[in-house]
Amino acid sequence: MLVAFSISPSGGDETGGVSEAVARAVKVVRESGLPNETTSMFTTVEGEWDEVMAVVKRAVEVVGEESPRVSLVLKADIRPGYTGQLTAKVQRVEDALDR
């Protein structure tokens, strides 16, 4: 499964920024060892249901350590039997563009 998610604390730093909190969440994802990708709006992680959701939960907990309220946006692509979709889905689109 692929899960794209965005986590943000309820408040930011003195400039309204949330990059420090988001960095802590991304670190959790990267240390998980699961295939992942971070873009300007979402982090996507690939794996089995329980392992992916455990990573998302831990990322929320880490942000929650610094903020009394955390926002989570999550989108999942659940397709049993498929792996490597983090890059394969993008490649299929690129291949279609080349036709």
- As a percent range, the share of helical residues equals 40-55%
Biggest β-sheet strands, sense, barrel = 4 strands, antiparallel
- Secondary structure tally, helices: 3
Shape: globular
* Strand order of the biggest β-sheet: 2-3-1-4
Mean pLDDT: 93
How many distinct folded domains?
1
Within the CATH hierarchy, at the fold level, what is the topology?
A: Alpha-Beta Plaits
Top-tier CATH class: Alpha Beta
Number of strands: 4
Rounded to the nearest angstrom, the distance between the terminal CA atoms is 28 Å
Order of helices and strands: EHEEHEH
- Spans of at least 5 consecutive residues with low confidence: none
Relative strand content:
15-25%
Structural class label: alpha+beta
Describe the protein's architecture and organization.
The structure is a single chain. With 99 residues, the chain is an alpha+beta fold. It has a single domain, classed as Alpha-Beta Plaits. It has three helices and four strands; from the N terminus they run βαββαβα. It has helices spanning 19-31, 49-64, 85-97, and strands at residues 2-9, 36-38, 43-46, 70-77. It has a four-stranded antiparallel β-sheet with strand order 2-3-1-4, with helices on one face. A hairpin with a 4-residue loop joins β2 (36-38) and β3. α1 packs antiparallel against α2. The two termini are 28 Å apart. The model has no long low-confidence stretch (mean pLDDT 93).
SSE layout and pairings?
Blueprint lengths: L1 E8 L9 H13 L4 E3 L4 E4 L2 H16 L5 E8 L7 H13 L2
Antiparallel strand pairs: 1-3, 1-4, 2-3
Helix pairs in contact: 1-2
